[in-house]
Every structure is written in C-alpha cells, then in structure tokens.
Specification:
This protein is α+β, with helices and mostly antiparallel strands and 265 residues long. The protein is built from six helices and seven strands.
C-alpha cells in the first residue's frame, strides 16, 4: 500500500462517500448576499480565498449564530489549500466582530468566539515562524518539522501543518502550487518523521533511513539550523502529536466550481 496509501486509509477510512450527490449551484454571488428564510434574514458573506477559493460564512442575526464553514476548525489543525493567510486572518477577524453567541465551525463541535481567537493566534504564530525559516533557507518540510506545536498539542490532525507551511512558502515566493496528492504525500511523510522522533522504540529503525529522514539528521526533526534556534522552535519535538484513530463526525462535501453559491428551496 505504501506510506501514502496507509495514510489515506487511516484518515479517510471512517468515511463513506458512495451516497454523496454533488449539487451544482443555482445562483452565484460576489461579496455578500442577503436572503430570507421564512421570517429570518440570512447573510452570506464572501471571505475567501483562504481555506479554498470560495470560502463563505453564513450569519443569522436573529439567532445570533454564524456558520463559518471551513474558515473555522475547532480543536483541530486547519488546512490551508489556497491562502493567502492574510485573507484567513481577516475572515477570523470579521467573525470576531459579529454580534453572535454561537459559532458553528466546519470541523469540530459547536463553539463560541474563543475558538475563533485560538485559530487566529495559530495562524499568526505559524506565519511568523514559517517566515523566519523561509528567510533562513529551510525547506517547507524541514520548517514544518522544526516549528514547535506545543501550544496546540491537544489539536488533532497535526500533520496538516506541513500543508499550511507549504502554502505559506508559496505565497512568500510566488511559486507554483502543489497538487493535492503532493500535499497529502508530504503530510504522510511529516507524520512518519514526527512519529519516529517521538518514539524511542523506533529509533533503531532510523539507521536504515537516509540522512534526511533520520531524527537529528540533515533535515530531520531534531535539526537546528537557520531560524531553528529562535523562540520556542523545536521545543515540542518530543511530543507525539499523532491523532489516535477514532471515528470522525464530519462528512466533507465537495465544491466543484469557483464562486459562492446558494440553493433556494
């Protein structure tokens, strides 16, 4: 099956995709669209590109509720397929200004604005740390392994950090975007290396790996180079950040075209 196959089986295995029916939009919009659903006003606000090209939040003022879709991951690492990070931070800032009490995220349990502030702090920190390592000449993989995630150790799906760093690097350099299979492959590799660095029992196997994959080797999780010595960099490398296999409660949908859509019923 290989490393990527095993990783995909683990993260997507709990899902069933057979009965998903893709529905194309019947109406598109730019900026903002206000609808009436029964007696309630519903505001659709464009906030992307950030997570993807077509991010939208839905505000129901009468209920003091905002549905953030994947602009908010509560209790788990986000994944930034598109960027730039400035747009995501701006979207989170907008949510924090709304007169709402309840926040319904795209991933994780129903929450409040504290989760929004936590994700804002995550992206602010990650952007700062990734930029320092980019300027120091570290690769995206090395940077993702080197950045401490100690403050986010309770969050699931830590392997997504390498996709986020890769997207940050793309915006720093103006480079080409990676494909989804490439990013998923790097997430699988990050997970393998991080697990190896956190598991003393696995260290013996490192002798069979190339230098760049060994803990403490060139490019390995223990590397200290460039910006690695700044701040808390590398401080969390002894923490096993893998997510225990568990049933996932969310089912991911698919967006097949650019734009922001609504479907009137």
């Amino acid at each position: 099956m290989g490393l990527l196959g095993e990783f995909l089986s683990r993260i997507f295995g709990p899902f069933e995709f057979d009965d998903i029916e893709l529905t194309l939009p019947t109406e598109t919009f730019d900026g903002e669209l206000t609808l009436r659903v029964g007696a309630k006003q519903v505001r659709l606000v464009e906030v992307g590109p950030a997570h993807t090209r077509g991010d939208t939040i839905v505000v129901v003022p009468a209920d003091r509720v905002v549905y953030t879709a994947d602009i908010l991951f509560a209790g788990g690492h986000p994944i930034m397929w598109e960027g730039p990070v400035e747009n995501w931070l701006r979207a989170l800032g907008l949510v924090l200004t709304l007169e709402v009490d309840t926040v319904v995220p795209g991933h994780g349990p129903v929450t409040d604005k504290r989760a929004v502030a936590a994700l804002r702090d995550y992206f602010t920190y990650l952007d700062r740390e990734a930029r320092a390592r980019f300027d120091a000449g570290m690769s995206a993989m090395d940077a993702a392994l080197d950045i401490s995630l100690a403050d986010f150790a309770s969050w699931g799906e830590a392997e997504r950090v390498v996709a986020n760093v890769r997207t940050l690097y793309r915006w720093y350099s103006g480079g080409e975007r990676a494909t989804a299979p490439e990013l998923l492959g790097e997430m699988a590799e990050w997970d393998r290396r991080r697990t190896l660095s956190a598991s003393p029992a696995a260290l013996g196997d490192a002798e069979e790996l190339p230098d760049e994959a060994r803990p403490g080797g060139a490019g390995g999780p223990g590397r200290r180079g460039g910006a690695a010595g700044r701040g808390r960099a590398g401080a969390g490398l002894a923490i096993d950040l893998r997510v225990a296999e568990r049933p996932r409660r969310e089912r991911r949908g698919s967006r097949r075209r650019r734009g922001h859509s609504c479907r009137r019923r």
